[in-house]
Amino acid sequence: MSQVMYCPRCGGELIPGDRFCGECGFDTQQQVANPEPVRPVAGTGGTIPPPVSPPVTNSEPVFPPNQQSVTRIDPAQGNRGLGAAPSRSGGTGPIIIVVGLILVLLAGGGLFWWLSKGEEPPQVAAPQTNQPQQSSPTPAGQSTAQPSAQLDLTRAATYLSESGLKCSFFVNYPDGFSGTVERVSARVVPAEAVRVSEAEIIQDSGEVIGYGFHYIERPDGIYLIYDSTPQECSPVLKNNLTVGQSWNYATEYGQIVWTVLDMGVNLDLGFTTLDNCLLLEEDNQAVGFKTIIYYAPGMGQVAERTSQEGGDLSKLTAFSKIDAAQAAETVKKWSPNYQSIQDDRTQS
Questions:
Q1: SS (H, E, C) the chain
Q2: pLDDT > 70: what percent of the chain?
Q3: Binning pLDDT at 50, 70 and 90, where does residue 255 land?
Q4: Alpha helices in the chain (DSSP H)
Q5: Residue 318: which domain range?
Q6: Residue 79 and residue 167 in one domain
Q7: Does this model's pTM top 0.70?
Q8: Residue 302 pLDDT exceeds 80
Q9: How far apart are the first and last CA of the chain?
Q10: How far apart are CA 8 and CA 14, in angstroms?
Q11: Of the candidates 45, 105, 270, 328, which lies 20 to 30 Å from 215 by C-alpha distance?
Q12: 180 falls within a domain
């Protein structure tokens, strides 16, 4: 039975035939001569290793030359690698570096989170295109006039109807006629002074009747020419409109006097409200009859009453924008003299 050997340095058990201690790597062939024999343990029949000096605190372990560690080889594997055992530091070095990088990344991420917490993400503006905006057509029942801030309510032309406007009225005249009248506005006369032309179409007893008239702008205001009598011209509205202002037109039967009663009036028609209306009293002394006429900016005459609190003689019930070519054809149909209409200033 072979005697059990112990490492003189650490006291670890030595396998017979091993040169280096499997625990501390001590070279057993360099041990001092006459080592202290192993003493038997009293009462056990075993042995104990000789006393070993305790390892020095905070000191690096002693390795054989050119080696950092010695790996214990199983006897069945022979002496492969003895004296050139693989170093453990070569395997742990990359691991330590990787762990260090991970810790740095985690610390940096935590710092970024702490600095940016509570902040709203930046808002990215939607890209703008240069495509033109498409305007929607004006639906029926809504005013086509410009905002009051851009209107000159003292100018007569402000109250002319726009080209391409189609209006429907219910009329109830003292002569007994009542029914629906349709009015269409368009530019059909080449003369610049003719601002707009209109045609009124009436359906009476299954028969369709229509007539046209034209509005001319002069320095002092707006004048009216009936298409059936192109040689005659009468004033409708004067410029520099003010409350109390009046003008007149003499006929062979008597005078017609117009007086401004109010301005900037809101007219409630039931289906819509028209703003900045002009109230005009028309006194037809030739027939002894007075009416109150309402004009709306961009729409022309929109209502006619026997008095401000009286019954309606004519009232707008609907309006819409139509195709300009269609409007012009309608006006031309009921205005056979439209090409001869002009303002030569000899008309009065």
A1: CCCCEECCCCCCEECCCCCECCCCCCEHHHCCCCCCCCEECCCCCCEECCCCCCCCCCCCCCCCCCCCCCCCCCHHHCCCCCCCCCCCHHHHHHHHHHHHHHHHHHHHHHHHHHHHCCCCCCCCCCCCCCCCCCCCCCCCCCCCCCCHHHCCCCCHHHHCCCCCEEEEEEEECCCCCEEEEEEEEECCCCCCCEEEEEEEEEEECCEEEEEEEEEEEECCEEEEEECCCCCCCEEEEECCCCCCCEEEEEECCEEEEEEEEEEEEEEECCCCEEEEEEEEEEEECCCCEEEEEEEECCCEEEEEECCCCCCEEEEEEEEEECCHHHHHHHHHHCCCCHHHCCCCCCCC
A2: 63
A3: very high
A4: 89-116, 324-333
A5: 148-340
A6: no
A7: no
A8: yes
A9: 153
A10: 10
A11: 270
A12: yes
pLDDT at 65: 43
pLDDT at 55 over 60: no
Question: 152-156, 226-230, 307-311 — which is least confidently predicted?
Answer: 307-311
64 and 199 part of one domain: no
